[in-house]
Design brief:
DUF995 domain-containing protein; mainly beta; signal; 1 helix; globular; about 120 residues; 8-stranded antiparallel β-sheet
Length: about 120
């Protein structure tokens, strides 16, 4: 079950992007994408201009990966620790600090994301 929640957290990271170091992705750099699950759990997502990605889960787990943009999707690969899925892509969503948007995880559960100023 813990493995499922890691994948679910990665599934809903939709943000604005074109490629690492792109101006379109700049709103995510230095800020936090916070994913809220219906059961009260959360995941914090952090993107870096050089393609690095990290996340922190409400239960204390952490995941690292590489992000890249592919068409209208953002993809994560090279997970550490290793995940069930070696690669996961999610649709991009244009957002400004303070915006919220809905998404679904791989199990079909509704998730609410928000772009928060700074690193939390």
């Amino acid at each position: 079950m813990k493995q499922d929640s890691v994948i679910c957290g990665l599934a809903i990271i939709g943000v604005l992007a074109a490629s690492p170091a792109s101006a379109d992705m700049s709103k995510a750099f230095g800020n936090t994408i916070l994913s809220h699950y219906p059961n009260g759990q959360w995941v914090r997502h952090y993107f870096e201009p050089d393609g690095r990605y990290t996340s922190q889960f409400s239960d204390g787990r952490r995941v690292a990966a590489r992000w890249s943009a592919e068409g209208d999707k953002i993809c994560l690969t090279g997970f550490s620790p290793r995940q069930i899925l070696p690669r996961f892509c999610s649709r991009m969503v244009e957002a400004d600090v303070g915006d919220t948007w809905r998404a679904r995880d791989p199990l079909g559960r509704s998730i609410r994301n928000e772009l928060i100023a700074g690193r939390r």
